[in-house]
Amino acid sequence: MSHTNIEIKARCPAPDQVRRLLLSAGADCRGIDRQTDTYFHVPDGRLKLRQGNIENALIFYRRPNQTGLKQSDVALYRTTEDSALAEVLISALPVLVVVQKQREIYFLSNVKFHLDTVEGLGYFVEIEAIDADGTIGIETLRRQCESFMEKLGIRRDDLIDCSYSDLLMQKETPHETTD
Question: If both were cysteines, with which of 39, 82, 156, 172 could 96 make a disulfide (CB 3.0 to 4.6 Å apart)?
Fold first, then answer.
């Protein structure tokens, strides 16, 4: 299944406030997912295996690292919680990084919201305006994402330009200093 998202990721200093705003807007809470995302080294884009108690999928995507709204082109293959796919992939491809998180999943129409607690990184909020079949259009997705950023009080200063995998790898790699 392929689709297009317009999305943002931001630090979330007040997850309780965002949760209250989502629920007061009538968001459908799908539950709390404890996810392990295993990222694999691939020549182009990103490939991750998501294993959780709600969402399980092999996901390939291309998305630029930029602050603000980002277009993400996604190919997703749904798996099961007990899938042996992890063993196959780990045997065949080098593991880049593993991200552990607790994710609260909410939906309002075609827009998906995540309240994430990422091990080693802290609290984040994500907004994904999803066009599952090409009928919504990029401009509508952009407007939806921007509108929800405003409604949830997400400041431009809180936006993150990369993935959790990148943040974890940056944290693990000491930065060089020059004298």
Answer: 39
Gyration radius of the chain's alpha carbons: 16
pLDDT in tens, 50-87: 999 999 999 999 988 888 899 999 999 999 888 899 99
Q: Are 71 and 128 a contacting pair, CB within 8 Å?
A: no
8 A C-beta contact, residue 118 and residue 164: yes
Q: What is the DSSP string of 75-101?
A: EEEE--TT-THHHHHHHHS-EEEEEEE
One-letter amino acid for residue 167 of the chain: L
Q: What is the pTM of this model?
A: 0.90
Contact 149, 8 (CB under 8 A): yes
Beta bridge partners of 107: 28, 112
